[in-house]
Task: inverse folding
């Protein structure tokens, strides 16, 4: 292992350094803490952009590796690197962060509650997210994966809504159940690597080479084989985070209770940790086991798509509607990943980014409305487009992105998934396709109830349109919506060779299996 | 008669004397602080200063001794090796923190100045206990330690709970000590030795064993399980933890557990984990079940607690369960105590720190802090709240804290030993534990203060103790390389 660049480490720890600066900020400047956070997110975005341009898209291997010896006795090291799969997710995090800060800037006269602690948690959260996406060592991955929980726990628990404590404890415990079993799996893998190679190591490059025993003569035998058990341990941790039906119930609670900026991070980035984990660890490390259970995960994904859409349709709470739409959209990613088809798997990666943008944008809109009218009930709105035309435009764009209109980014993600899945699992793809229609129904219904129709409220005098910061946030998101929609190659081009090698390696591993 | 035959001290060489010096220092310190503590007005401060200075001297001397070669004294009963010397330093460190914690707390709770001497006496007993491999010597060391602790528990003289706790602990602890003694004598009767290492040698040459030995071993194991507070022998833990003054609870939870566990590990390694005798398999299985039952019982009962010290006392039972997994894993080929020592050390830090914070918020003679009383305190005292959060997260085993590293080492050693089912039980019950640890954090930061909110009593000693523990917890959580390598090296 050798170090080729320390840039990734800077990306991970810049937010943490800033959180110490925030800690030492004198109380008199409490009002400036948001500005500090904005500066931090912009610096992080700048670093990420530099990284993006340094990234060599023609290589399929991990790049810019930074290696530091951490716990050599247990075979655990600090290894960070980036490849075409983590690249878009890091970029998503880097660009969503400033947008989220700008879009949730507290307006004048709003009393700030423990502002210092709040921004510190935001920065801490970013360190955790970058770390999880960039880690190339399983232990490090787990470390950051758990670290993400702590700031999110406080963000929901302190600054959340009425039922915030219930929601945040539920969120924490759900994630813990999965991740502790994952920890046991990690022990086992490190031990196996030590038995095979003589030295313990938890690095991805080392572990991915280990062929774990797999037996598919019968379900019972399969369930006893190490590969299946390991796969299930990891998959449980990840699908809870995705969330996949039936482990999704923490999500609506957490989303509804979280402060807007928390919801944006949760929807845009945190959910992707789950699918990223599946894509990075669960599927490539245990390909045969994953392939063996693919039908189940596809089924659950499709159920998620349809069930989530129906739930969204039934909501009267705007935020809950968006939360259930997340359940639905994340179902596509599950479908794409587990269809074991080149196009669909690539589409899943695109969908991760696109859902991040559209769900983040929709949560921002919910936040705008809530801050102005202090309600999230869909029937309390109506005819707002005349009073707040800019917000209406922004909302429209995000809605179109969410319903995957061709030309928007959502189409770039969902279309390849459905296309690829149709070739291997036509029935499931057909059902998933109905989700697109249902998605249009609930999204447009929400839009109609909020923005169109007769105005039902009389107290709209103090309802002001988007301010400059909020407009900037929406413009950035809009650029990505249409940029990705029209020029997907420009945005995802650097991932191509990684994705190619990734999918062909997995398909090859699965193909040699007699089960095919 | 030759004087040498009465006092064979002449036979001790320079290096041996030097290595025993820390023990002499703290014993002397204890005597001095007893005497000086009788001063009418300043007795407490003098006793504190004396014990503090002597402890620091003992730590410095032990650190210097680390370079000396290993010796065994008194015909091999007292082995002063790199390993036991490190354990002694850890014990002295816990005692130092406990002494700091007691300073200030003593006046508030009306504790006598003798408590400082008792802490030193107890730590002398602990050092002997981790250093010896002789069953009788172990009994004596256990008594030196326990008698001091019984008095410390009962020392809150105006509190009825403290008297209750002291009596309970004394009667039950006396029973346990008697079992250890009786068990040892049965073992001696059947095999003709008190020395653990030679017993292990005798045992590994046999393939069957007399029932007398098994009864003796059973009694010894029961005594040790009592001292560590494992499931069927845990009854005293909650009451004693609650009734004792918080500084005493902190010291007990950290140091007594540390000592008792390492002593138990020694016994288990030499008497139970011997593959040649089939009957010993019963004991191994017994430890398996005790570990599982302790984790399940401790964690599930802790959920129902609404008082802080009581909750932590049940959580300490649960931690005994996790530790028993590590102990069980020593059964494997090349199993070692290193992960056990790491976990115990990290747990002791979190334990000392959390009780230090609790002691800052307690009134005189208060039995316990109710969760309602700490509502909103994290917001009022962000620094203290953050420290308590760090300790609780460390006990829950969340990354960034040393508790995670400890848990990782412990569980991975168990997986390496092939004990996956036990580890799965452990991780599932630790999800339960996350719930009750989080609840404290929820009360600290997310609830509004009620009517009966606890008052902050600034005590410098406790604050420093908490701060030192918090820094150590984070330091070892993020950069654990040095300590892991060190402990691995010495426990070889």
Result:
């Amino acid at each position: 292992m050798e170090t080729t660049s320390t840039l990734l480490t800077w990306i991970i720890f810049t937010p943490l350094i800033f959180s110490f600066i925030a800690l030492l900020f004198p109380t008199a400047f409490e009002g400036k803490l948001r500005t500090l956070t904005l500066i931090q997110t912009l610096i992080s975005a700048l670093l990420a952009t530099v990284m993006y341009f340094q990234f060599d898209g023609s290589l399929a291997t991990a790049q810019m590796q930074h290696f530091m010896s951490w716990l050599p006795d247990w075979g655990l090291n600090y290894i960070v690197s980036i490849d075409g799969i983590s690249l878009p997710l890091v970029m998503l995090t880097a660009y969503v962060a400033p947008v989220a800060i700008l879009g949730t800037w507290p307006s004048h006269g709003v009393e700030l509650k423990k502002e210092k602690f709040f921004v510190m948690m935001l920065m801490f959260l970013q360190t955790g997210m970058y770390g999880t996406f960039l880690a190339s060592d399983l232990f490090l991955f787990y470390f950051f994966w758990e670290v993400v929980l702590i700031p999110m726990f406080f963000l929901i628990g302190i600054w959340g809504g009425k039922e915030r404590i219930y929601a945040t404890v539920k969120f924490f415990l759900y994630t813990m159940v999965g991740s502790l079993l994952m920890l046991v799996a990690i022990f086992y893998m490190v031990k196996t690597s030590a038995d095979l190679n003589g030295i313990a190591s938890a690095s991805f490059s080392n572990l991915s080479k280990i062929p774990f025993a797999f037996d598919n003569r019968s379900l019972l035998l399969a369930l006893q084989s190490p590969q299946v058990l390991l796969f299930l341990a990891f998959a449980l941790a990840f699908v809870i985070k995705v969330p996949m039906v039936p482990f999704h119930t923490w999500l609506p609670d957490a989303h509804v209770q979280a402060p807007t900026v928390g919801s944006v991070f949760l929807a845009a980035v945190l959910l992707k940790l789950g699918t990223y984990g599946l894509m990075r660890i669960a599927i490539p490390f245990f390909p045969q086991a994953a392939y063996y259970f693919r039908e189940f995960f596809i089924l659950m994904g499709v159920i998620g798509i349809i069930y989530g859409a129906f739930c969204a349709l039934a909501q009267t709470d705007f935020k809950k509607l968006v939360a259930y739409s997340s359940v639905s959209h994340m179902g596509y990613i599950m479908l794409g990943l587990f269809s074991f088809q080149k196009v669909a798997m690539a589409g899943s990666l695109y969908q991760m980014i696109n859902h991040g943008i559209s769900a983040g944008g929709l949560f921002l809109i919910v936040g705008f409305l809530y801050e102005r009218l202090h309600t999230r009930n869909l029937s309390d709105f109506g005819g707002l487009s005349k009073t707040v035309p800019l917000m209406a435009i922004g909302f429209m764009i995000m809605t179109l992105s969410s319903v995957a209109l061709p030309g928007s980014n959502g189409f770039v993600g969902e279309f390849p998934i459905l296309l690829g899945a149709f070739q291997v699992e036509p029935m499931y793809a057909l059902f998933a396709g109905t989700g697109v229609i249902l998605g249009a129904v609930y999204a447009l219904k929400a839009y109609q109830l909020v923005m169109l129709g007769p105005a039902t409220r009389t107290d709209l005098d103090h309802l002001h349109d988007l301010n400059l910061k909020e407009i900037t946030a929406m413009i950035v998101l809009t650029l990505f919506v249409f940029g990705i929609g029209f020029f997907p190659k420009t945005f995802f081009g650097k991932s191509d060779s990684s994705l190619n090698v990734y999918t062909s390696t997995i398909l090859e591993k699965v193909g040699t299996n007699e089960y095919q | 008669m030759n004087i040498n035959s009465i006092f064979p001290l002449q036979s001790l060489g320079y290096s041996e004397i030097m290595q025993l010096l820390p023990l002499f220092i703290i014993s002397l310190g204890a005597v001095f602080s007893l005497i000086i503590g009788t001063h009418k007005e300043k007795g407490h401060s003098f006793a504190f200063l004396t014990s503090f200075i002597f402890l620091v001297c003992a730590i410095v001397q032990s650190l210097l001794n680390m370079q000396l070669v290993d010796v065994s004294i008194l015909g091999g009963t007292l082995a002063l090796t790199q390993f036991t010397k490190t354990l002694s330093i850890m014990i002295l460190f816990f005692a130092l923190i406990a002494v700091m914690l007691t300073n200030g707390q003593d006046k508030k709770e009306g504790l006598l100045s003798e408590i400082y001497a008792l802490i030193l006496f107890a730590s002398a007993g602990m050092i002997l206990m981790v250093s010896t491999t002789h069953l009788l010597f172990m009994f004596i060391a256990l008594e030196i330690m326990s008698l001091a602790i019984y008095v410390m528990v009962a020392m809150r003289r105006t509190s009825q709970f403290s008297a209750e706790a002291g009596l309970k602990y004394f009667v039950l602890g006396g029973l346990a000590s008697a079992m250890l003694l009786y068990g040892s004598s049965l073992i001696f009767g059947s095999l003709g030795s008190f020395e653990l290492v030679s017993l292990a040698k005798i045992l590994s040459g046999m393939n069957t064993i007399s029932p007398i030995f098994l009864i003796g071993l059973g009694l010894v194991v029961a005594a040790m399980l009592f001292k560590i507070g494992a499931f069927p022998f845990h009854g005293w833990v909650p009451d004693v933890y609650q009734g004792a003054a918080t500084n005493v609870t902190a010291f007990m939870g950290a140091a007594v557990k540390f000592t008792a566990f390492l002593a138990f590990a020694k016994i288990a390694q030499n008497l139970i984990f011997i593959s040649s005798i089939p009957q010993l398999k019963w004991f191994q299985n017994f430890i398996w079940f005790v570990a599982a039952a302790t984790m399940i019982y401790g964690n599930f009962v802790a959920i129902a607690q609404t008082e802080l010290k009581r909750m932590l006392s049940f959580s300490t039972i649960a931690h005994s369960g996790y530790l028993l997994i590590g102990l069980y894993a020593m059964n494997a080929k090349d199993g070692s105590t290193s992960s056990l020592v790491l976990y115990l050390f990290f747990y002791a830090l979190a334990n000392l720190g959390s009780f230090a914070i609790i002691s800052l918020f307690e009134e005189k003679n208060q039995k316990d802090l109710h969760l309602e009383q700490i509502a909103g305190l994290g917001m009022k005292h962000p620094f203290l709240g953050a420290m308590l959060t760090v300790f609780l997260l460390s006990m829950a085993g969340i990354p960034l804290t040393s508790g995670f590293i400890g848990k990782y080492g412990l569980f991975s050693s168990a997986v390496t030993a092939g004990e996956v089912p036990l580890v799965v039980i452990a991780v599932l019950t630790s999800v339960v534990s996350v719930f009750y640890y989080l609840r404290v954090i929820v009360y600290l930061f997310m609830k509004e203060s009620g009517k009966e909110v606890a008052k902050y009593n600034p005590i410098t000693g406790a604050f420093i103790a908490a701060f030192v523990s918090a820094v150590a917890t984070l330091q070892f959580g993020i950069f654990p390389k040095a300590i892991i390598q060190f402990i691995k090296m010495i426990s070889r």
Remarks:
- The beta strands of chain A are 63-71, 76-82.
